[in-house]
Design a protein that fits this description.
This protein is α/β, with parallel strands linked by helices and 200 residues long. The chain is 28% helix and 26% strand.
């Protein structure tokens, strides 16, 4: 999910070594990232009986995504309503009624392979579900595809473009989406919050 734009103070992607623009020293970036995650979970607890957190390890934050998960697990260790998932797998699955949700950042497997990966990894959940979704990041723009057996979606980000991505020609907008799934009927609604609305 690239929660942290950079994985350390070198401000470069771990695999591609691409330069990254980072606002502030790394210890400050980590501090703010932790605080935002905690506040998001606390806000969700006001509306929901249980809150699940999964840090989808991204190509920008290979190690800090893991660190964030274990920080949140320790922070909410006495809160039974918060479940922090810390599996080392690049693929995460969650069943909700007739829905099967798959989450991965999207930089390790081709989109066309994700339905087969889901069916192979969790065949019982696949068979028990009627509505199957892959939610991915990585490319940071909106894509929705009907795939064999499931629907795949990638999302925009709220983050600003840095110099490298801007020079490469990336021009996606910035927004945040909430998706509501009914346990028996799949997706029933969604809301989009663009950056202008959030800053107003």
């Amino acid at each position: 999910m690239d929660w942290f734009h950079a994985d350390d103070g070198d401000n470069r992607t771990p695999r591609g070594n691409n330069p990254l623009d980072v606002d502030g020293r790394y210890h400050k970036v980590i501090q703010v990232g932790f605080e935002i995650a905690v506040e998001m979970i606390k806000a969700a607890l006001k509306k929901h009986k249980k809150v699940h957190w999964r840090s989808a390890e991204g190509n920008h934050n290979t190690h800090s995504a893991i660190m964030l998960s274990y920080y949140l697990k320790a922070y909410f260790k006495d809160e039974e309503r918060v479940i922090v998932h810390c599996s080392p797998s690049m693929f995460f699955y969650h069943q909700f009624g007739k829905n099967l949700i798959g989450i991965t950042h999207g930089h390790t497997a081709k989109p066309a392979n994700l339905p087969g990966i889901m069916a192979t990894d969790v065949p019982k959940l696949w068979g028990d579900s009627e509505f199957r979704y892959w939610y991915c990041g990585h490319i940071h723009h909106d894509v929705v595809k009907e795939m064999p057996g499931c629907k795949l979606e990638t999302f925009r980000t709220l983050a600003s473009k840095d110099a490298w991505h801007s020079a490469q020609g990336y021009r996606s907008g910035q927004d945040l989406k909430t998706i509501t799934l009914h346990k028996d009927y799949g997706e029933v609604s969604r809301n989009t919050f663009n950056l202008a609305l959030i800053n107003s």
